[in-house]
């Protein structure tokens, strides 16, 4: 099932894969079915939906894509859009994420996709990882159907996870406590998950789980992909067992968080088109404030527009990047929310908004000590933090 907003005059199509974690065993899929039914069954889905962020048809909210044909594909497969297994004697659940995408493409060809110039496969969270896993397959499917002229591209939001060591190791009981690699290892077997052939060839048999991690699959992709990733992603911190509730963060956690930002920044250095703000958040492209966030003075819609143009230009003449139109945007400041355009943070208990300094203090950030290390006056450091330099 999917939602469609047609835009008859446009030859641009945006297909969006919804996110929402996953489950990887009979037990935690049963729990998910009890608690989050809409992510496992279409029975309670609304008849219509309103698009927000990059799916909005309002030019103020969506300056460059408002006029495209929009397709929202809800997430009911719980398999990071990778599964290809029907319900069987041994498995109560069907996992068909990869097949759902193929069926939607087949159906859309009859609704105007056949004359498309550009198809942007976008997604957030598990949907963002789903983009990395499926974008080349979508391109191949359209080629096989005889539509070689459609340029297929990917936009992966908050789906670029690291297979790093957890801050505190915990046993793999449910989705939240399980280390990222272990959850995917179990999941890929449970879902009969499929990964792109070119990525699979890079790893030994049984090691296909590696392809769920952005920095490992990205070099194998043929289609251009734009990666949007918060440097301090809340879902990543959750699976790494860093919980930022109530109590000030201990020094070990604080160092772990800063190191996470550094590691993530490193994995993005060879990603041609990227937007990575130093914020603590998760998902952005369908949020209505997505136009407000900037990295080095450039907003995300602007960076996507520049990327569109660069792909258009390089098709024509392979020229160097466009002047004044950057597409590789990664914050270099080292702390969560050191970028003043980050989304507002609320205290999880009181619900009150916090500014950067309140937030850092709340996290146990020692201004005196940090200033000393940086060789600054404490007041100067506070000034720099509040202005985001």
Automatic annotation (TrEMBL):
This is NOTUM carboxylesterase. GO terms for molecular function: palmitoleyl hydrolase activity. The gene is Notum. One of its GO terms (biological process) is negative regulation of canonical Wnt signaling pathway. PANTHER family: NOTUM-RELATED, PALMITOLEOYL-PROTEIN CARBOXYLESTERASE NOTUM. Pfam families: PAE. It comes from Ceuthmochares aereus. InterPro entries: PAE/NOTUM (IPR004963). Belongs to the pectinacetylesterase family. Notum subfamily.
């Amino acid at each position: 099932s999917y939602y469609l907003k047609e835009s008859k005059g446009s030859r641009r199509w945006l297909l969006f894969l919804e996110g929402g974690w996953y489950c990887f065993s009979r037990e935690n899929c049963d729990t998910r079915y009890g608690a989050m039914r809409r992510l496992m069954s279409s029975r309670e889905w609304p008849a219509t939906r309103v698009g927000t962020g990059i799916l909005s048809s309002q030019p103020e909210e969506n300056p460059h894509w408002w006029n495209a044909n929009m397709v929202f594909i809800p997430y009911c497969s719980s398999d990071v859009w990778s599964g290809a297994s029907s319900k069987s004697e041994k498995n109560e659940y069907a996992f068909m994420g990869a097949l759902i995408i193929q069926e939607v493409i087949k159906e859309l060809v009859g609704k105007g996709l056949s004359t498309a110039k550009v198809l942007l496969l976008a997604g957030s969270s598990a949907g963002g990882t789903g983009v990395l896993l499926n974008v080349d397959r979508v391109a191949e499917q359209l080629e096989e159907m005889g539509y070689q002229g459609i340029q297929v591209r990917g936009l992966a939001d908050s789906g670029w996870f690291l297979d790093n060591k957890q801050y505190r190791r915990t046993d793999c009981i449910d989705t939240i406590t399980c280390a990222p690699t272990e959850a995917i290892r179990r999941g890929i077997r449970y879902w009969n998950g499929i990964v792109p052939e070119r990525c699979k060839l890079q790893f030994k048999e049984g090691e296909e789980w590696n392809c769920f991690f952005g920095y490992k699959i990205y070099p194998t992709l043929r289609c251009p992909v734009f990666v949007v990733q918060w440097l301090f992603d809340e879902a990543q911190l959750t699976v790494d067992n860093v919980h930022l509730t109530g109590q000030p963060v201990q020094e070990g956690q604080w160092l772990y968080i800063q190191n996470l930002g550094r590691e993530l920044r490193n994995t993005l250095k060879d990603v041609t088109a990227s937007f990575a703000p130093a914020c603590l958040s998760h998902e952005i492209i369908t949020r209505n404030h997505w136009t407000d966030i900037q990295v080095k003075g450039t907003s995300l819609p602007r960076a996507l527009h520049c990327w569109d143009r660069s792909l258009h230009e390089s098709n024509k003449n392979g020229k160097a990047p466009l002047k004044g139109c950057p597409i590789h945007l990664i914050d270099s400041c080292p702390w969560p929310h050191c970028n003043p355009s980050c989304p507002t943070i609320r205290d999880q208990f009181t619900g009150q908004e916090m500014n950067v300094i309140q937030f850092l203090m709340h996290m146990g950030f020692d201004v005196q000590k940090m200033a000393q290390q940086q060789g600054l006056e404490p007041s100067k450091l506070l000034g720099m933090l509040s202005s985001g330099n």
